[in-house]
Write a structure and sequence with these properties.
By secondary structure, the protein is mostly helical. Helices cover 71% and strands 5% of the residues. The chain contains 17 helices and 5 strands. A 3-stranded antiparallel beta sheet has the order 4-1-5. The longest helix is centred in the last third of the chain and has 36 residues.
C-alpha cells in the first residue's frame, strides 16, 4: 500500500485528488472539535462518556465529536441508519424494488429518499439528545436565558452539521479518492483509536508496569485480528466457467475459460451494522421519550439486559448477523440471474447443465459461503471484545477497537488501495495510448 501511495503522488492528477481528499477530511476533523454554542461541555461530556449505549457508538464513529459537543457531533450516523432502513424497505416494498432496478435514475431517487430519511433521523436524534440530557447540559445564557430556545438552537446546529457531513462525503466521492462517507467513518474511528491509545499510554507510570505488558499483549492480539480480517476479506471461491465456441461468419468466438469469484464475506460489515442498529434502535427511542438513569427505569433495564456486554445481547447479535448475512446475500447475488446470463452468452459450469441445475449449484455454493462468512462476522463481533477484556484493556480501548470499527478500518484501507491502483492503471493506459 505504501508503494501505491508513493507511485500515486508522482502523478499530478492523482496527487491533486489525494490532497483535495485530505483537505476535506481536515475540514471535517476541525468541525469535530469546534464546540456547539449552547452546550454546557462539562455536563455534556460526562453524560456521553458515562453512556454505554448508542451514544458511545455515535461518539466513537464520529471521532469523539459527540463527547466534545462539536458542530459535527452526529456525523454520518443518521445517514447510515437511513441507508439501512431504505435497503430493508427496498426488499419489503415492491415500488422501491422496481425503482432500484431502473438504473441511474432509480438510484438518484433512492438517494433522495435516503437523504430525506437521514434528515428526519437527525432531527429525532438531536431532539433525543437535548431532551434526554435535560436543561443541565444546556448553557441558556447564550440565548437570552431561555432553555427552550437554546435547545432548539442546539438541535438546529446538530442537524445542520449532520447534513454538512453528508455533503462533505459526497464531495470526497465526486472529487477525491474513494467513498467519501466511508472515509469520514474511517478517519473518525482512527481518531478515537488514537485518543484511546494516547490516554492509555499517558496513564502508565513506573508504579503500574503490569499495564505495559497488558498494552503490548493488546497490540499483539490486535495485529493478529487485523491479519485474520484481511485474510478472510480476500478469500473467495472461484467457480470455473467455460464458454462454448461459436462461429459467426468466418470468425470463431468463445472457447475461453474463466471463473465466477464468490467472496466468503461478500456482505462486508453490513450484517454487523444491521444487527447492532436493530438492537440499539429501542434504546434510541427510549432515550428520546423515556430517558432516565434511575435504577429500575425502562432505559436502564434495557441497557443492563440488552446492552453491549450482556449474554442476551451477544446471542441476539449472533442470530441477527446470521439472518442479515443471508438477507444481504440474497440482495447482492442472484443465482438465477447469473445462470441466465451464462446461458445467453454460451457459458456453462463443467458438470452442470445450463439453466436450473446451474442456478441450484450456485445457490448451494453461495449459501455455504454465506454461512462461513456469517460465522466469521459473529466471531469478529463478539470474541475480540472478550479477548480485550480478558487481557485487561481499558474501556476506551475496547470501545475504540470495536468489531464494526475493525472491519470498517480494514475494508476502507483495502478499498483505498484498490482505488489508487485503478487510478494508476488508468493513467498508465493513457500514457501507453499516447
Amino acid at each position: 500500500m505504501f508503494k501505491t501511495l508513493r507511485e500515486a503522488f508522482r502523478i499530478k492528477e492523482v496527487r491533486k485528488k489525494i490532497l483535495l481528499t485530505l483537505l476535506l477530511l481536515l475540514i471535517y476533523r476541525i468541525g469535530c472539535w469546534i464546540p456547539t454554542p449552547g452546550i454546557a461541555l462539562s455536563t455534556f461530556q460526562g453524560a456521553v462518556n458515562n453512556d454505554a449505549g448508542f451514544l458511545s457508538i455515535i461518539s466513537a464513529v464520529s471521532g469523539n465529536a459527540l463527547s466534545n459537543g462539536a458542530l459535527l457531533a452526529l456525523g454520518v450516523v443518521p445517514y447510515i441508519n437511513a441507508s439501512i432502513i431504505i435497503q430493508l424497505l427496498t426488499v419489503a416494498i415492491p415500488a422501491l424494488e422496481r425503482l432500484s432496478k431502473q438504473g441511474e435514475d432509480g438510484k438518484k431517487k433512492i438517494s433522495k429518499y435516503t437523504r430525506i430519511a437521514a434528515l428526519v433521523l437527525a432531527i429525532a436524534q438531536s431532539i433525543g439528545i437535548v431532551v434526554g440530557f435535560g436543561t443541565s447540559s444546556l448553557d441558556s445564557s447564550v440565548f437570552f436565558g431561555s432553555s427552550f430556545l437554546t435547545g432548539a438552537m442546539v438541535v438546529l446546529i446538530l442537524v445542520s452539521g449532520s447534513m454538512f457531513t453528508v455533503w462533505l462525503g459526497d464531495k470526497i466521492t465526486a472529487l477525491g479518492i474513494g467513498n467519501g462517507l466511508s472515509l469520514l467513518i474511517f478517519v473518525g474511528l482512527l481518531s478515537s483509536a488514537g485518543t484511546a491509545i494516547f490516554k492509555t499510554i499517558s496513564g502508565i507510570s513506573s508504579t503500574n508496569l503490569e499495564n505495559v505488558w497488558s498494552l503490548l499483549i493488546f497490540f499483539v492480539a490486535l495485529i493478529a485480528i487485523f491479519a485474520f480480517i484481511v485474510w478472510i476479506d480476500s478469500a473467495e471461491r472461484r467457480v470455473p466457467v467455460q464458454y462454448a465456441k461459436q462461429i459467426k461468419g468466418r470468425k470463431m468466438y468463445g472457447g475461453q475459460n474463466t471463473n465466477i469469484p464468490i467472496k466468503i464475506n461478500a456482505s462486508g460489515v453490513m450484517p454487523i451494522i444491521f444487527a447492532t442498529a436493530l438492537i440499539s434502535f429501542p434504546q434510541l427511542i427510549m432515550s428520546i421519550f423515556w430517558y432516565s438513569t434511575e435504577e429500575g427505569s425502562a432505559y436502564m433495564w434495557y441497557a443492563k439486559w440488552l446492552g453491549a456486554g450482556s449474554w442476551i445481547y451477544s446471542l441476539l447479535v449472533a442470530i441477527l448477523i446470521l439472518a442479515f448475512s443471508y438477507f444481504y446475500s440474497m440482495i447482492s447475488f442472484n443465482p438465477e440471474d447469473v445462470s441466465r446470463q451464462l446461458q445467453q452468452n454460451g457459458g456453462f459450469i463443467p458438470g452442470y447443465r445450463a439453466g436450473k441445475p446451474t442456478a441450484d449449484y450456485l445457490k448451494r455454493v453461495s449459501n455455504r459461503l454465506t454461512l462461513w462468512g456469517a460465522i466469521f462476522l459473529a466471531f469478529i463481533a463478539l470474541i475480540p471484545t472478550y479477548i480485550f477484556t480478558f487481557i485487561g484493556s481499558s474501556g476506551s480501548l475496547i470501545n475504540a477497537f470495536s468489531a464494526t470499527g475493525l472491519l470498517i478500518v480494514v475494508s476502507v484501507a483495502l478499498e483505498i488501495d484498490k482505488q489508487l491502483e485503478a487510478q494508476l492503471l488508468m493513467r498508465n493506459y493513457k500514457g501507453f495510448l499516447k
